[in-house]
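[Automated response] Your request has been received and processed.

Submitted sequence:
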Amino acid sequence: MPAKNNSVKLYLLTLLMTIGSLVTIGQQNEKVVKLVKKGTELNDKGDYEAAIKKYDEALLLDKNDFDANYEKSLSCLSLKRYDECISISKFLVQTHADNPAITGVYCNYGSALDDKGQPEAGIKIYNDGIKRFPGSYLLYFNKGLTLGKINQWDSAVACFFNAMRNKPTHAGSLYYTAYQLADANKIAALISGLSFLAAEPEGKRAALILKQVNAMINSLVQKDKNGKSVIATPMNDNKNKQNNFNKVQIALAITGTSNNDSIKTKTDVEKLTLYVQALAGALSTEQSTGKGIYWEVYAPFWVEMNQKKLIPVYAHIASITSGNEENIKWINANQDKLKSFYDWYNNYQWGKIK
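Generated structure:
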């Protein structure tokens, strides 16, 4: 009997030690969470060194904590401490492969290698991530940026397209395609630019894209040596090629020539409204036979916007960075219309590539 009593005591002691250990771990985890939170606040303020100190304090309590390691790698990347970022990212890929946020680690990993001057190694990391997470728009986008840096722009644009398939509202991919396609496919570039302004209507990038959009619209009709208006010839002459917008480009150019006198009296917002409505109308006519991401994903978006009679509101939103006082007054006085637009925009069901 005494032996049994001793075993019960031993069991109770072990149980109490286990409970105490769990309490300590719980307290530690609480401290880790607080330290990481403080670190991210410092990081967001641009105080990366102070942020790293907080992450290091957290890692003394739990060296394997995913958030502390990940956030530290991000701060290291901001400080151009690439080797540290690479080392942490490699560790996380090996030890936290199933963490839902691991795609961000691949992005940091690839970016650090790229910024260190090893773009090919960075691309390999992006490819490893894409193989595991083909639905990640950021991995495709970051790979596209790296390819662009080494002047492989055709491959970069293909990556941006994949990012846009995964997230049609991704402003970064829309921004780069608006510029990269401007010579080869004016309408595709125009659609990217217009779509960007719906996703990100304010800021420096929006101001640049608004100028790019206006330049592309103006380039649809050119002047010959006699000063006569001439429709620019579409570059994409293969009818079976994806994202072929020959007919749409001609229709949009005709809008400019046939309304030349009335356009001169319109405000910039009214002019943008006219062209976007004409674009949506031309897309509606041809979309049943169109192929490629712009026809299958973006054309239905602009057609529906037109059907919902939201294009005039969109034109005001897209023109925010113009600084036009009348437009700013309209924006301030019509917040209900802006809300209606973004209620529709945020709930829009994007199409998929067939």
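Summary generated for your ticket: Residues 168-354 form one domain. Residues 11-27 have pLDDT under 50 and may be disordered.
If you did not submit this request, please reply to this message.
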